[in-house]
Amino acid sequence: MTLLGDVVATLDERYPPAWAESWDRVGLVLGEPEADVDTVLFVVDCVPETVEEAVAVGAQLIVAHHPLLLRGVSTLAPTTYKGRIVHRLIRAGIGLFTAHTNADVAAPGVSDALAARLGLRDTRPLRPAVGDPARGTGRIGTLPQKLTGAALVEFAARALPPTAWGVRGSGDRDRVIETVAVCGGAGDPFLGDAVAAGADAYLTSDLRHHPASEHVANGGPVLLDAAHWATERPWLDAVAAEVAAALPVRTVVSDLDTDPWTMHFPSEHFPSQEEVR
């Protein structure tokens, strides 16, 4: 049998905790290093639904991208949301491991998997890591063939895991797109990097209203705003394959959509007062 500690060592070697941002909380959260592991479930979020999925598939370890305990808590009582999750994991004998910003900046990492969904070629870091330009945040590369802005939005919506959010676009719908920057997760802070890198388009999630508006008004790259979960789900396949290649364990990738936005209805027109009445 593989030990939980063996899985942790493999992941720590591939995604060193030292690469994580100072505010981040990565590594082993729950579980005995000496515990046996034969099945590992890979998820974006450790939420009640993915915990029950782990129970259903017989996993002894969850590897999550987002930290469950990112910020300090004063209690893990089962009367609290996070406390209930922790108690359920312990009762089920399931460990929890997190690889977050250390996986974001790895090479390959989260954004490489996102770039691969678009078929980007000759990728490089959008914001290289200090002291190691081979890795860093985001990726930028070229499409296999040029697309218009509108066609790229449609292509991205089909290439990414499906969500109610889908993919929103902003900018010149007829602009010819060849060079694309991507960033898994919240990439709002890297808008300037996409401009400086000469990207024709930038795909990420959690873009804010005012920065996006000013960016487009200044003639910046076409923006594609996808669901946060959808931009990070592709990495799960990669990390699961890495663990399966290194250790004799069964790996399962969760396709449960844990994006919080579950309803979307486009507004076709603004109703008149008469219609409202």
UniProtKB/TrEMBL annotation:
Keywords: Metal-binding. InterPro entries: DUF34/NIF3, DUF34/NIF3_sf. The keyword Cytoplasm does not apply. A divalent metal cation binds at H65, H66, D104, H228, E232. The keyword Nucleotide-binding does not apply. Homohexamer. This is GTP cyclohydrolase 1 type 2 homolog. It comes from Virgisporangium ochraceum.
